[in-house]
Write a structure and sequence with these properties.
Helix content: 55-70%
Radius of gyration: 52 Å
Number of helices: 40
Shape: elongated
Oligomer: single chain
Structural class: alpha+beta
Distance between the termini: 94 Å
CATH class of the largest domain: Mainly Beta
């Protein structure tokens, strides 16, 4: 039994130690994401060991979490322990197959450890996620090279270069690959394939002198000197004045003992390149030619014979053919003229030689004129037609380079209609298509494209060209549908090609729809694009923006998350994520989300804009919650990053206005730039703020009251001065009342108070404890009519969303008057004999009135609604008065308003008592009123208010024929009292 007890005690102790040790090492992180975020910050700061220690703690609590395993693999990669790194990275992928970061790092691990096949596999997996990442394609090619699989690397490089023809990096890689290939072929003795490869290289890079020299040398090694000479001419045409090519061609001609041709050539080239080396070569060549001349060149001998008069066909033919072949242009022109004299101007052979000579002389116009003459004479000759077609193509190319497509079109149409050569014919149709497109003759372009696809079924660019033309014809939807059909029918490689083409058309089309206001159409097209290419950056951006404009907030959130998945560091998507939080009114969460991103991209306009917008919303939210200090702190933080944001400054002014800091409110709100429609209202609002800034105010009020049944006027005049501050306001008030009424014996008096003058002096203090609490205290003393003593205390609490509640308590010492009647013998004797009692004055009594009440108010934009109830305790009885009111502020200046009110109760409203107006208790009193105020200028505001009071009136009289038997009677009725309040407020 004891042993079992000890065993339990031991287990409890161990459990206690385990719990305490765990709590001692707990860093307060509750989720794997928190561990991952802090560890990444450690690694970013080169605090690798601190990050590893925290990472081990996280993996102990959350084993096999993908991001944590990736970070552990990253740590071991940094330590160059690649086996450990691989182990954790593979575990990361096991937990989350789509962990892109882990796969990227695994590619590096396998590359460094020379496991190239594995590295290629991981690259393929990454390409499944983002097949349009050019960097991954280049990495894959690099891995094939390291694997010594140059065939696959070259094939892939060629294919990717076709998909991205405008990528300069891929183009350089492609050229480099071909260059390495031909160098290897040359070293291996495979000269023919090396020549083919060099030919392709020269097409791609026609300005590379080294390529021309290499291909010339290869042809010389093959024994083909004429081809070498041809390439030297091509090289000099592409690179005029090239010293190396001049030397090379001259050397070949010298080896062929064609000294006159070499000398003529070098003389011509010295016009462009008269370097010392070229001049020395020329002089040396002259010496060699002179020595060779000793061997008696047949051309010279035939020339001497011809000049001597032996002008037979043999000599002329030899001299003509040799001069043309050797490039003796002057001699050739001479012998052509001689031949025309002997054989006529229309001899086919002579004309063709003349044409060839002009071509050698680069006299294109003369060559074309001669060729055109031959074509007109021999239209069915294949060679002449082929040459004519080549001339037309050459002219077309030059005209197209100058943008003269209309002039180039007849030349390519000539070639396309001759069908002399399939390749030439295909090139002519393509140029015709290009001309029609550039001339915006799109119907002819479509017809030409139909012809091309009919005669050349293997034409690969048909879909691309047709879609391009349809787009130019404003049939973009049809073009996109064409791409969609091609995508459905294509293999994986071609699908990528077509998707790229689809995106190139879709993006401008979506942009056009957005600019035209066709947001729904833009949204539909953006969704199609994103479904084809989920990683399309512009597609995702348009999908997000259009869905937001259409109010499709679920789609907006969906595509924002998709954008963050593909582009986690892209500020645009981070800003849209903040918008999602804003839509849920989670402004504080939005700011917390944006702060680390803003620290990372402190100058990014999108992030700054999102942060400013969230700050503005949060500040307004805090203002409604009556927390202006917090609101100002939020705005000040935003202005640190966006100091010129006028909307932020305006909002800051709004917060200051809510906090009764009119001077600061005016300073910041003046930055706002109103529209034309808003301008007058905004200027009015600024005037209201200027008025609020004034600390002193004098108010003059005149009340004029008149009974409905009698022409009896009652008036009250008020003058007051107020000194206003942010937290405290002090008011001194003087009320004056004059009453018409009987003061002596008059049986006709209907009033319930005596006539005379009353004055009341009042002081008032209002204090704001905080944006949520304020109190008002006032006290007054009066001589007559007004309550002898008045004291009020009111407390007001400002709630969220512009609600207010208030409570108040007040004390008044009020006077009550009754008529006093006495027996008068003279009055009785002089009267009718039925009454001897005469009104001799007033009896005054003092009563205490205690008031307790509450108020509820709500502001809805420009309307303020309020309700108030007062409970009066008077002569040990309870009375009440309930009021409702509404104020409408139409002018946006904070002062101009239209005011309506009503009340009902067994007691009059408090203002009736304060202004010494008639009223009654224990019977129903009603009141309705309408009026308003108008701010004339920041210094002057005027007001006018009218009220209609209905109250119970009681008049006591005494009659009788005996001094010992007075008969007291009371007459009651309801009376109407109409009041007009005129007000003038002067601020300074």
């Amino acid at each position: 039994m004891n042993r079992e007890f000890l065993h339990k005690i031991t287990l409890l102790g161990c459990l206690f130690l385990l719990i305490t040790s765990s709590s001692g090492t707990d860093n307060g992180f509750q989720t794997p994401e928190q561990y991952a975020q802090i560890v990444q910050e450690h690694f970013a700061n080169e605090e690798w060991e601190a990050g590893k220690e925290l990472l081990e703690e996280g993996l102990q609590k959350y084993p096999n979490v993908s991001d944590l395993e990736w970070l552990m693999g990253k740590y071991w990669f940094h330590e160059k322990n690649y086996d450990q790194s691989r182990y954790h990275l593979v575990k990361a992928i096991d937990d989350n197959y789509n962990n892109v970061n882990a796969k990227h790092l695994l590619v590096d691990v396998e590359d460094i450890t020379e496991n190239y096949s594995s590295a290629i596999c991981y690259v393929n997996e990454l390409l499944e996620v983002n097949p349009y990442w050019r960097g991954l394609w280049r990495r894959k090619i690099e891995l094939y090279r390291k694997q010594n699989n140059d065939v696959e690397a070259d094939r892939l490089l060629k294919r990717i270069n076709q998909i991205y023809p405008n990528d300069t990096i891929l183009r350089k890689d492609y050229i480099y690959s071909m260059e390495v290939g031909y160098q290897q072929m040359k070293k291996g003795g495979n000269r023919k394939e090396a020549i083919e490869r060099l030919t392709e290289l020269i097409k791609v890079s026609p300005q590379n002198e080294e390529y021309y020299l290499d291909i010339i040398n290869l042809h010389l090694q093959e024994g083909n000197r004429e081809a070498a000479l041809g390439w030297s001419s091509n090289g000099l045409a592409a690179i005029p004045g090239s010293g190396a090519l001049i030397v090379k061609r001259t050397s070949i001609l010298s080896e062929l003992a064609r000294y006159p041709e070499a000398l003529a050539f070098i003389r011509e080239q010295m016009k462009r390149n008269n370097s010392p080396a070229i001049r020395r070569m020329y002089n040396d060549l002259l010496m060699e030619a002179a020595r060779a001349e000793k061997q008696r060149d047949p051309y010279v001998l035939y020339g001497m014979a011809y000049e001597g008069g032996n002008k037979n066909k043999e000599a002329l033919d030899y001299l003509l053919n040799t001069s043309v072949t050797r490039g003796y242009t002057d001699d050739a022109l001479f012998y052509i003229r001689e031949a025309k004299k002997q054989y006529g101007n229309n001899d086919k052979g002579i004309l063709y030689k003349e044409y060839m000579l002009y071509r050698q002389m680069n006299e294109d116009d003369l060559a074309y004129s001669t060729l055109k003459k031959m074509y007109e004479m021999y239209p069915d000759d294949y060679d002449i037609t082929l040459a004519m077609s080549a001339q037309h193509m050459k002219k077309a190319e030059k005209l197209m380079e100058l943008g003269l497509y209309a002039e180039a079109l007849p030349h390519v149409l000539f070639v396309s209609q001759k069908h002399v050569d399939n390749d030439v014919n295909g090139a002519a149709w393509e140029k015709a298509l290009s001309c029609y497109i550039n001339m915006k003759r799109y119907n002819e372009a479509l017809a030409t494209l139909d012809t091309i696809t009919l005669h050349f079924p293997d034409y690969e660019n048909g879909t691309l060209k047709r879609a391009f033309i349809l787009d130019k014809m404003d049939k973009t939807e049809e073009a996109l549908q064409l791409y969609l059909s091609a995508i459905e029918q294509s293999d994986e490689d071609m699908r990528i090609f077509y998707v790229i083409g689809y995106e190139e058309l879709a993006v401008p089309y979506i942009k056009k729809c957005m600019e035209a206001g066709a947001t729904k159409k833009a949204y539909e097209e953006a969704i199609k694009l994103v479904s084809l290419n989920p990683s399309s950056d512009l597609g995702l951006r348009y999908a997000i923006n259009s869905s937001g404009l259409l109010g499709k907030y679920d789609e907006f959130e969906k595509y924002t998350a998709q954008g963050i998945n593909y582009y986690p560091e892209e500020p645009f998507y981070q800003a849209k994520r903040a918008t999602v939080l804003e839509r849920d009114k989670r402004y504080e969460a939005s700011l917390e989300f944006l702060k680390p991103i803003l620290n990372k991209y402190p100058s990014n306009k999108e992030i700054i804009g999102a942060f400013s917008q969230s700050s503005e919303y949060r500040a307004l939210q805090l203002t409604k919650a009556k927390e202006p200090e917090k609101a100002l702190a939020v705005l000040d933080t935003a202005l640190l990053y966006d100091s010129q944001n006028k909307s932020l400054k305006y909002t800051k002014g709004v917060v200051y206005e809510a906090n009764r800091q009119a001077d600061s409110a005016y300073y910041y709100q003046k930055y706002y730039e109103p529209s034309i429609m808003e301008y007058r209202s905004f200027q009015r609002h600024l005037s209201g703020l200027r008025s609020m800034m004034l600390k002193n105010e004098i108010a003059l009020t005149y009340l004029r009251a008149r009974y409905g049944e009698e022409d009896i006027i009652t008036s009250v005049a008020t003058a007051e001065y107020t000194r206003k501050g942010q937290k405290n306001s002090y008011t001194g008030r003087l009320n004056y009342a004059g009453r018409s009424g009987s003061a002596s014996d008059s049986m006709e008096a209907e009033e319930q108070t005596p006539g005379g003058v009353g004055i009341q002096v009042q002081g008032e203090w209002t204090h704001h404890f905080s944006p949520k609490w304020s109190t008002t205290v006032n006290a007054a003393f009066a001589t007559k009519y007004f309550p002898d003593i008045t004291a009020d205390v009111a407390v007001r609490h400002y709630l969220k969303n512009d609600w207010e509640i208030g409570a108040h308590v007040g004390y008044r010492r009020v006077a009550a008057y009754t008529k006093r009647y006495e027996w008068n013998d003279e009055f009785f004797t002089g009267g009718t004999g039925d009454n001897g009692y005469l009104f001799t004055g007033w009896n005054e009594s003092k009563t205490n009135l205690l008031t307790v009440g509450g108020e509820l108010a709500k502001t809805i934009e420009v309307v303020r609604l309020n309700t108030k109830i007062d409970m009066h305790f008077f002569n040990s009885n309870f009375y009440y008065n309930a009021q409702i009111g509404a104020k409408y502020f139409p002018a946006n200046d904070g002062k101009t308003n239209i005011n309506a009110m009503a009340s009902i109760g067994s007691a009059p409203e408090t203002a009736v008592l304060d202004y010494a107006l008639p009223g009654s208790f224990s019977h129903t009193n009603t009141m309705v009123g309408l009026g308003g105020q108008y701010m004339v200028s920041p210094n002057i505001t005027i007001g006018l208010m009218g009220t209609w009071n209905t109250y119970y009136n009681q008049t006591n009289t005494v009659r009788g024929s005996s001094p010992f038997n007075p008969i007291e009677s009371i007459s009651t009725r309801y009376k109407n009292l109409y009041n007009i309040y005129a007000q003038v407020y002067i601020s300074f």
